[in-house]
Amino acid sequence: MSEHVLTAVSDGTGVITLDRPRALNSLSLDMVRAITHTLLAWRDDDAVQAVVVRSSSDKAFCAGGDIRFFHDLGRATPQQGSALVEDFFTEEYALNHLVHHYPKPFIALMDGVVMGGGMGVAQAGPHSRTRIVTDRTRMAMPETNIGLFPDVGASYFLSRLPGRLGLYLGITGATIGAADALYAGLADHYVPAANLTALGAVLNAGGGAGLPAAIAAFAAPFKAAAGPGSLERDRAAIDRHFGAGPVPAIVASLQHDDSEFARATLALMATRSPLMMCVAHALQELGAAMSMADCLRMERAAVRRTLENGQVIEGIRALVIDKDHAPRWTPPALADVTDEMVRQILAPAWPDHAHPLRHFHGAA
């Protein structure tokens, strides 16, 4: 169990509070295990009729996986470091699968930063999920910025967004706020931060299986207050450019557009891993027709292949260790990325009978 995961049950509602504020609730392996242990225990507990996941801090719901942990292990004894990193991804994806098929209402209060692994916890929820955003919400799948691709089930949930919004968010790693999250279908309700104390009273009042309806009623008056977002404004351009084909075709399409959106998007993509942008595109194209279980299995193999080429360690070094923001990507330019490189990342890493996630199930 983890000191950074607090749990409580009251009046039919189980509450998981992420409590690692200095690290913006970045998930450690111990935290993943603690959350999983709690959800498994509550799944068959009649005293728990609904689950709420929230943060103890107003800065972040969860900023993702602990990337410093990955970097340190990557530089440690190869056998020890590799084994713990492999455990992290296997167990994190097992948590995502558990949440996706959870049989009870699942509420995520996404106040503050919500990225990477935090998105996996919130977006992998069942059909009875309730995702709440606030005016402090800063949401993204920014993995292409650290030499990885959007994972934790993103090949499933991003590929099912309207139009080409999922490709735009996954390839660029763009950060969005509450209005954009609602527009894209990545959130269900908006509650201003100033009203979170009152929302807390609703959550603390229990209600069990009726909690989602109580939250919806509380949030209804605030719906218009989220305001317009940039995704709705730029939707036509996003669909046109990110529907142009593979990543090189997307870049070429953007280069023929002199709009502010096109210039900003090109500048953002220029900082991302060329290979991982192409992998992100391929994963969404495949994931759109796959179940969550199959998407997670595909991503798990792709993570294994990606870790082998060292891009993640280099991306983390440039972003959070040396902070020079000058990663030495391999290959360094989009023109150097070949179809064979992408196929190598997507190639099976284990035979089906030995895949660490072979026990996953579910047609959806």
From TrEMBL:
Listed A to Z, the keywords are: Hydrolase
User: Enoyl-CoA hydratase/isomerase domain location, by residue?
Assistant: 14-345
SUPFAM superfamilies, alphabetically? ClpP/crotonase (SSF52096)
Origin: domain of life: Bacteria
Which residue spans adopt a coiled-coil conformation according to this UniProt entry? Answer: none
- Signal peptide span: none
The protein's matches in Gene3D superfamilies, at most eight in alphabetical order, are given as:
2-enoyl-CoA Hydratase, Chain A, domain 1
Mind telling me which CDD domains this protein's record contains? crotonase-like
Protein name from the UniProt record: Enoyl-CoA hydratase/isomerase family protein
Q: What is the lineage of its organism?
A: Bacteria, Pseudomonadati, Pseudomonadota, Betaproteobacteria, Burkholderiales
